């Protein structure tokens, strides 16, 4: 049994605002330790429950946050960027289940540090379904026939996961007060919860179906301002919807849609004046 673990940062225990997740800020280094320990609670429990391999993908910002020297010794770690599939790099049909840890709610929704990829995105749609990082990543997993068996993060991320993925196990390590304030468990208490939930998720994995993406999905990204839409619209095959800040791209499959989203959001970040 192979388990895939994607670890973001905004949904990690105790982290409440940008000073915890920005590498230039004072809270970042201590937050890396909490993030790494949180990944280890999940990895160690997965091995205890029969996993033969656990692949961990660092999925936040420059994607080099996890401290490899502190990781469980049997962990296989993907770290750094640029990665062709970003937050789901390395995920394929060989895995029995995927776990998303440190996840947060999508852009424009209530939740701690809620956003989708960049702060210039208001909404992302796959056909008519609004998705955030969680949903888009789950669709990629579904493309490979892999169910997302567990999501850990704040209460709003858990709600989003439960609405998208029937029977998913969720681990709520903090409650939203505002976008930059939380009521949180301690790391020690969260560790106990994560081990308990990981065990339950692996036990329950046969009851969770992959989130199968639509064939030939239409990707639509609504940006915060027109300049961002202009940059994203430079990618071949895209079109700005008239009178909006939404850019559309007709993809062949969800993998092409995912990579298009990566390119469009990277281009949009070049907007110098908002």
Automatic annotation (TrEMBL):
<keyword id="KW-0031">Aminopeptidase</keyword>
<keyword id="KW-0645">Protease</keyword>
<feature type="binding site">
    <location>
        <position position="104"/>
    </location>
    <ligand>
        <name>Zn(2+) 2</name>
    </ligand>
</feature>
<dbReference type="GO" id="GO:0046872">
    <property type="term" value="F:metal ion binding"/>
</dbReference>
<feature type="binding site">
    <location>
        <position position="8"/>
    </location>
    <ligand>
        <name>Zn(2+) 1</name>
    </ligand>
</feature>
<feature type="active site" description="Nucleophile">
    <location>
        <position position="115"/>
    </location>
</feature>
<keyword id="KW-0479">Metal-binding</keyword>
<dbReference type="GO" id="GO:0004177">
    <property type="term" value="F:aminopeptidase activity"/>
</dbReference>
<dbReference type="InterPro" id="IPR036177">
    <property type="entry name" value="Peptidase_M55_sf"/>
</dbReference>
<feature type="binding site">
    <location>
        <position position="10"/>
    </location>
    <ligand>
        <name>Zn(2+) 1</name>
    </ligand>
</feature>
<feature type="binding site">
    <location>
        <position position="8"/>
    </location>
    <ligand>
        <name>Zn(2+) 2</name>
    </ligand>
</feature>
<keyword id="KW-0378">Hydrolase</keyword>
<keyword id="KW-0862">Zinc</keyword>
<feature type="binding site">
    <location>
        <position position="60"/>
    </location>
    <ligand>
        <name>Zn(2+) 2</name>
    </ligand>
</feature>
<dbReference type="Pfam" id="PF04951">
    <property type="entry name" value="Peptidase_M55"/>
</dbReference>
<dbReference type="InterPro" id="IPR027476">
    <property type="entry name" value="DppA_N"/>
</dbReference>
<dbReference type="InterPro" id="IPR007035">
    <property type="entry name" value="Peptidase_M55"/>
</dbReference>
<protein>
    <submittedName>
        <fullName>D-aminopeptidase</fullName>
    </submittedName>
</protein>
<feature type="binding site">
    <location>
        <position position="133"/>
    </location>
    <ligand>
        <name>Zn(2+) 2</name>
    </ligand>
</feature>
